[in-house]
UniProtKB/TrEMBL annotation:
Its main location: membrane. This is Preprotein translocase subunit YajC. It comes from Eiseniibacteriota bacterium. The keyword Transport applies. Keywords: Cell membrane, Membrane, Protein transport, Translocation, Transmembrane, Transmembrane helix, Transport. It is found in: Cell membrane. It comes from the Bacteria. Pfam families: YajC (PF02699). GO terms for biological process: protein transport. Belongs to the YajC family. It is a single-pass membrane protein. The keyword Transmembrane applies.
């Protein structure tokens, strides 16, 4: 029992004294801040940035939307644009059915613009 506590005490002192500045940096209190900053950087470049780019791409496609373009709505309906204004779009699902949607409900533009 006495030997274990002595070993722990010697191990803690020995690790700090034996290591160089790199071991002291990663064992010190500043390492927590560095690790959080590193994790946030990774999260930003893997999650936040690509989402913002997709959002900008969709906004650009919605701004270029014209009559006759095929779109996919957030509810999964594939339709053709009949009329479109700043806030709403009238979409034709088939020859007899026209539905009015909010522009934000358009998830994807399926017509290729060339």
């Amino acid at each position: 029992m006495f030997f274990v506590s002595d070993a722990w005490a010697q191990g803690a002192e020995g690790a700090a004294a034996a290591g160089g500045p790199l071991a002291q940096f990663f064992g010190g209190p500043s390492s927590t801040i560095v690790m959080f900053a590193l994790m946030f950087g990774i999260m930003y470049f893997m999650l936040i940035r690509p989402q913002n780019e997709e959002k900008k791409k969709l906004e650009k496609a919605l701004d270029a939307l014209q009559k006759g373009d095929k779109v996919l709505t957030t509810s999964g309906i594939v339709a053709t644009v009949v009329t479109i204004d700043k806030e709403r779009a009238v979409l034709k699902i088939n020859d007899d059915v026209k539905v009015e949607f909010v522009r934000a409900a358009i998830a994807q533009v399926l017509t290729d613009k060339k």
